[in-house]
Structure formats: structure tokens, C-alpha cells
Amino acid sequence: MADSNEMTINLVVLGKTQTGKSAAGNSLLGSADFESRLCPSSVTTRCSLGRSGRISGLIRRNGCESALRVRVLDTPSYPHSALGKQQVRDTVRAALAQHFGEEGLHLALLVLRADLPLCPDESHDTVQLIQELLGPTWKDFTVVLLTHADKAEEAGYSEETYLHTASSTLLSLLSSVQHKYIFLDNHNSIIKEERNIVLRKLLNFIQRNNYQVLLKHSKE
């Protein structure tokens, strides 16, 4: 937090290739910091930190409006088409310590595609990575981000009907993270109102955690 009238939230996006991780990061930042494109191989090969500008009108603290800043760490997909699992794990762990070691991490966003069914064991590798990175309380600090929600909507699914027909694998995952999930469209440019809705939901999850953070270095 830079001052009493400003709050910064620290997020990391994790997921498989072509789930829309980088695009989701750009949507949260309101920018195009991260490279995002259709490709038959993994696009992101290193961790990269993006920062938003000051965002007004979302939070009030002690009766006064506070500005919000968002920091998002984009990560290589896991599994990756060119990098080994251990290499990705070590890269992400080092980046988390470098960028969030001072202030801590508020939430990890597990990115899945809403327009594709989640089959058994399909998200196992990424969930295992999150467990290794965040430790035993990972469920309290993990949000499932369902991208390409616009395609599910075009197919006639509202959020409610989508969840009623979702695979047991997805429902079990959502239950394990205490139903912390957000649907996100993958338009080229998310409008400000949509972005603010998503950010408010993330702020609500952070508030539910009493603004606790993970991975903060001890000052001893």
C-alpha cells in the first residue's frame, strides 16, 4: 500500500496453455502488458509483472474513497510446450518472491476455459503447482477464473445454467476453493464497467480473507 488513500492488490495468474491467462491479466490491468495470441504452442515463456494505473470509485476505507492499483504476475503455462515442469515451478516461485516478497500475494487466479469441459485430472498439474507455491492454505487464496465466458453465453448458457450442467470435476474444484470463481469474457478490449465488476469480486474475496497475504518475507 503506497499511502492511506491507496490500496494495491497483488495477483498471479496460473493455468494451462491457451486458457487465456495473459488475456485475463490484460483485462484486469486495463492494458496490453502481456503478449496474448492464438498459437499451437505455449506463448508465455517467462514471468512478467504488469501494473495498472490508479483506479477510482471501487473502494472506501475509513469512510473515504481510496484509489486501487492492481499488480498481476503473468506466468508460463503449466504444463508447458517447451519448458519442463520443474523449470516452470522454479521460475514462478522466484518471480513471486521477487515481486511480492515485500507486500505478499493476495490471490492466485487459476485460469480455466468456460467453453471447454473440464475432464478428470485435467487441472491436476496446475492445482498441484498452486499447492506447492502457496502451501497448506492454498484453497483460501485461490480463485477460479473461467475465461471465454462469452462463448458459453453465445451457446445459451447463463452462469447459473452453466454451473448446473458443469462437470463434476469442475464443481468439485469450485467447492474446494469455497466457490470463489469469476466468469470473464475474452473480448479484445474489456469495457471499464465489466472490468470494475471483476475487480469488485476480487476485492470481496480479499476482504473475506481479512486482507491477509501469502509469501510475504519475514522481517526478522
The best one-word shape is: globular
Rg estimate, integer Å:
17 Å
Q: Structural class, judged by helices and strands?
A: alpha/beta
Annotation, overall tally of beta strands:
7
* Low-pLDDT regions: none
Helix content: 25-40%
Measured by DSSP, the beta-strand proportion falls in 15-25%
SS summary, helix count: 7
Order of helices and strands: EHEEEHEHEHHHEH
Overall pLDDT metric: 88
Distance between the termini: 21 Å
Largest sheet: 7 strands, mixed
Descriptive notes:
- The protein contains seven helices and seven strands; from the N terminus they run E-H-E-E-E-H-E-H-E-H-H-H-E-H.
- It is of the alpha/beta class and 220 residues long.
- Strands 1, 2, 3, 4, 5, 6 and 7 form a seven-stranded mixed beta sheet that branches.
Secondary structure layout:
Layout: E1 6-15, H1 21-29, E2 48-51, E3 55-61, E4 64-74, H2 85-100, E5 107-113, H3 124-134, E6 142-147, H4 149-154, H5 159-165, H6 168-176, E7 181-183, H7 192-208
Parallel strand pairs: 1-4, 1-5, 5-6, 6-7
Antiparallel strand pairs: 2-4, 3-4
Task: List the defining traits of the structure above.
7 helices, alpha/beta, 220 residues, seven-stranded mixed β-sheet, 34% helix
Q: Quick summary of this structure?
A:
This protein has 220 residues and is α/β, with parallel strands linked by helices. A hairpin with a 2-residue loop joins strand 3 and strand 4.
